[in-house]
């Protein structure tokens, strides 16, 4: 009986010890709150980093929330409700131009092209941008990256968005696809996997890629306030290291495998559609292969913003980009 009691005491004590160790391990993890501007397969490397445990390997407990709208992500960052934002670099320029004393700094790039595709209602094997003239074009929110890149590409192709077509911009981002489905517009600008869903359903046909037409640009970037980076430099470096691991994983693995990994973030989307979406983005090099945002991409962004009349101030690369963190991660 005494032996049984001692054995039971040992088991209980061991359980308490293991529990305490587990709690210590949890307490040693650094909490990082990330706000993404939308839930999109375009951000596949981020979800790979989460699902494959790359952040945990770096001692980071990442809490991801989706906050629709670049302005809302910026508000979350500036009010310290989030530590890191995943959003277009143009938002950091807007904040800086408004005189922010604690500017938002771009430190790790995730996507390097536009992620939208031009969808037509009917198949158009011989499509040219001239076909857009006099059409109803269902675009994106004014001042946002999708719309600015869309207008930039149209102008590069000799199309004046204001005079050559009827540009529709009064529909919220979340309702653009359903509006096209219900009959609004002859053409629409959509992200994946919605674009592939339209093709599968016979509701639309992909006729052009804005990512292929516009060149490299810091389309979606991880960013944080300067004060956060100053106070949490090691955390930012670990975060960037996890992102880089995921970028290399996406580069070196099949669209099928990536789609299976990220499917928990897109439960209502067919796996086959996710795979085709990932494959489309991989084939046009939309996923950045490393987290460095270079100066040429920054200047291309400003050219696109300037062309659309949305560049509030010509802010130098060094003012809003910290490339040192990513460079150190890659060199290790």
From TrEMBL:
Annotated protein name in UniProt: ABC transporter substrate-binding protein
KW Signal (keyword) present: yes
Compartments reported by the entry: Periplasm
Main location (coarse class): periplasm
Gene3D superfamilies: Periplasmic binding protein-like II
Keywords: Signal
Family, per entry: Belongs to the bacterial solute-binding protein SsuA/TauA family.
Leader peptide range in chain numbering: 1-24
UniProt xrefs under Pfam families: NMT1_2 (PF13379)
